[in-house]
Design a protein that fits this description.
single chain; Rossmann fold; two-stranded parallel ribbon; about 15% strand; globular; binds nicotinamide-adenine-dinucleotide; binds thymidine-5'-diphospho-beta-D-xylose
């Protein structure tokens, strides 16, 4: 089996590459990644010399390059992780989000139509459903919840999902879509809540909590997301959407305080800053479908996962210190100074 993993030098794609290489010794994993600010070859250090792994530095929106890769590799399955993924950046400027997340998806699916494919899998997000109110704990996102987006990022992901559905209906392209809740774990780029708070706490820098910190996210350890996608590409039904989540809801403040507690740091490091524009209040996934139909269940509790994650950031300082001391520094200043 030959599987193309786009965005494999990023957080979830990188974890998925490791997961698949370790689990399927006879599969060929082909990583396609443009190496944007979020892509990092160091994430692929341990697999880069594996004979079952190859790497293309390619933009998924570059039709010529994508077609060439298809001609050379004749893949069986595409798993599309490649995306601009940070909500705050999409609020600053959404242009690249539309190009990569929507047009990149189109190019990949056109290549699938032209060269033939067993499965095109789109890695989507729970953010396409919008948000839920804090005072309705009985409500969850199901696969039937209407798309209702808030940020330019989520609008671009929802647009891509609609296009994937259109290619299934119109051209019979064998597609599946997964919509997962917030991931955390190793190799998470330190602009996102959990790694940013770990890095700042370790450096005794202020921890910028948006608004009052009451927004709720539904956290899933990244390896559990990888196992869900593995099941969907092998056993999922073509044309279907699968929600992925583990009922691990936490307010942002709870998450930040847990990190401070685990690191033995003072809560005085918390700094409440101006809220994110259009900030979604609560995400909460109902994973009943993937559980009932494919037998998927998460295996790592939040308590265990956050400990693993903090341990990983302590043991792999070079990986993230390289990032926060480089070009990303300017972006951090832009988002957080005078906020
Ligand atoms: P990330 O930002 O860490 O990684 C994205 C990767 O895609 C990077 O390696 C980057 O270089 C690459 N990339 C960006 N533009 C590209 C392009 N035009 N061509 C080729 N490669 C390109 O993102 P992530 O957090 O790993 O998210 C991966 C996917 O999962 C995204 O599609 C995201 O929408 C989705 N998702 C993320 C989460 C989460 O909590 N992080 C949750 C649900 C869904
Ligand atoms: O400095 C911060 N302070 C803060 O309070 C940052 C970076 C975030 N936050 C808040 C905003 C959110 O309520 O923490 C929460 C999580 O923020 P992010 O880590 O930026 O994630 P989120 O906006 O929830 O989106 C993530 O999950 C869904 C991913 O980045 C998306 O790619 C994915 O689709």
């Amino acid at each position: 089996m030959k599987i193309v993993v786009t965005g494999g030098a990023g957080f979830i794609g990188g974890n998925f590459v490791h997961y698949m290489i370790n689990k399927y010794k006879d599969y060929k994993i082909i990583c396609v990644d443009a190496l944007t600010y979020a892509g990092n070859m160091e994430t692929l250090d341990s697999v880069k010399d594996n004979p079952n792994f190859s790497f293309y530095k390619t933009d998924i929106a570059d039709r010529k390059a994508v077609y060439e890769m298809f001609e050379k590799e004749t893949p069986d399955i595409i798993v599309n992780f490649a995306a601009e993924s940070h909500v705050d950046r999409s609020i600053e400027n959404s242009e690249i989000f539309l190009k990569t997340n929507v047009m990149g998806t189109q190019v990949l699916m056109d290549a699938c139509r032209k060269y033939g494919i067993k499965r095109y899998h789109q890695v989507s997000t729970d953010e396409v459903y919008g948000d839920l109110p804090l005072d309705r704990q009985d409500l969850f996102f199901t696969e039937k919840t209407p798309l209702h987006t808030s940020s330019p990022y989520s609008a671009s992901k929802a647009s891509a999902d609609l296009l994937v559905g259109a290619y299934y209906r119109t051209y019979n392209l064998p597609v599946t879509i997964s919509r997962c809740s917030n991931n955390y774990g190793p190799y998470h780029f330190p602009e996102k809540l959990i790694p940013l708070m770990i890095a700042n706490a370790l450096n005794d820098k202020k921890l910028p909590v948006y608004g009052k910190g009451k927004n709720v996210r539904d956290w899933l350890y990244v390896e559990d997301h990888c196992s869900a996608i593995d099941l969907i590409i092998h056993k999922g039904k073509v044309g279907e959407v699968y929600n992925v989540g583990g009922h691990n809801e936490r307010t942002n403040l709870e998450v930040v305080k847990t990190i401070l507690h685990e690191l033995g740091k003072s809560e005085e490091l918390i700094k409440y800053v101006t809220d994110r524009k259009g900030h979604d209040m609560r995400y909460a996934i109902d994973p009943a479908k993937i559980h009932n139909e494919l037998g998927w269940l998460p295996t790592i509790t939040f308590d265990k996962g956050i400990k693993n994650t903090i341990r990983w950031y302590l043991d792999n300082k070079a990986w993230w210190e390289n990032i926060i001391s480089g070009e990303y520094k300017n972006c951090y200043e832009k988002i957080y100074t005078n906020r």
